[in-house]
């Protein structure tokens, strides 16, 4: 088998993940408004994919240098242009499926619940006056109609990700003219509630209210048609940060330019006349590859806003937040950790314990120092406020803020400035390197006056908002084997002068890749000696060809390799002679699976790690990631239970075949719904039931 056939293309594998999201929207066992959310998630995901990944491939196509394309071909067995064409083909098919689900499934099921979402049907008489009133009182002042055919050589600016109408007009003397009109979804709710009628709830998109009133905007024309369009622009920040210089200034400058990026996708209503499409391509200097046909409505991530008049009836029954008695029964988080390591599972257990940790640290007179790494900070960050309080109370606080976290740069910069004003020492991004670790270190004086360090090791961001929907773990520990090495991480982030050694933590840039390879080699050796070999990996993304090759080697030696990979997965499982001992599962459910777990059987002496690192080149070689061992036997049992339940899931898990098709698991075994069943198990463990 050629090397290029051993790895599935990264972009197509991600599209396979987004197809799995779309499958959830079509699943009749999922409550109706949860399915609508999955449509919104699919749309939002795809939008970002075009803004970042497709934009990157387009730039390679445009450069078209033989050297670059040769390297690309060697890696992917396709030219950049061929990959781009395949992406557009797959996306087109998925968009067709998206439209079918919305039209043929979601809209009719809403109607069964007496919820009418106006789409392609005339507004009933009872709603014409309220819709017209909303147009004139709310919408009209935001509208900016432009007659394009009168601009000559001028090119009007289209906002990134905003939606517009491209309008065909006929003047009084019979001439055809074209116009464009903004749809102000950033200023107004996308969906408007109309008066209830005959027992039905009615909602309408502001697109359709505007469409109904175009004659008011163009009084001297006959409106022949209005077609929705949207432009995605390249959203990757072009920052040369390999060398010294004011990185903060560079980031701020590039954020300002983000909305001026080159087009990565021009989405248009497929009913648009060819003449109008060609006019728009010429007017906005669009290439054939830039234009993508779509439906009548764009920006379907706005479906998150669709009102639900029946609330809980059409949504998931919320899971109770499980209390952690080990923490509730202690006078402080610190005293609980003094008795042993503490593990938390979010969102099954409350993130309030993390907030409590930082608030206690801010107020405890014995706490002398706090260090933390921030990757994605919540817009209203209670943790940041706690650190500001700590600084105000005279504690030494140091925070590393990653200002290159895509789409969170501005928010991170804003919070960094606030913390700096409060006297917190802020360390900004390291040139050429992202810090993705989710760790904190708190130093506290004990009764004897000695300094004791408490470490926080997480798989998810210090972000109380995402903690509500991301499934993650966090470890609180004062184990000196871990806290001493965590202090080395912070020392390196501060100066980058001394290269640290790590024996217990796995840290990208230093020992992570070599240690993982050694652990795989040990499983291979054990099998060769007639012993059992078993590896379980739970990841967000698996892309690094070096690690994939090691897993292939393990499979060929007879090691059982079980993978749970949510999104990008470039390994090809189940191929005889290459990967027949490898299985890959993907779980998509109410919570986004975000934690990373690494299990090695190790001849019965289980080795288990968790952390922030996926097995992608960027995580293993171009970032600072911290992966930490689970040493406490009871906590090991918790994580092994989580992995066991996820490997048995036959409700939300899909197998990925060698071509990355999502194959639903259909067997006669008792139903196992991983997220629900782990919640039940965790609840019983806490209550002793």
From TrEMBL:
Citing just one GO molecular function, the answer is:
ATP binding
Give the protein's cofactors: Mg(2+)
What enzyme class is recorded for this protein?
A: transferase
Q: Gene3D superfamilies per the record?
A: Endonuclease Chain A, Polyphosphate kinase middle domain, Polyphosphate kinase N-terminal domain
> What are the Polyphosphate kinase middle domain coordinates in residue numbering?
128-306
According to UniProt, the name of this protein is: Polyphosphate kinase
Q: How is it modified after translation?
A: An intermediate of this reaction is the autophosphorylated ppk in which a phosphate is covalently linked to a histidine residue through a N-P bond.
- Gene behind the chain: ppk1
Would you kindly state one Gene Ontology biological process term found in this protein's UniProt entry?
polyphosphate biosynthetic process
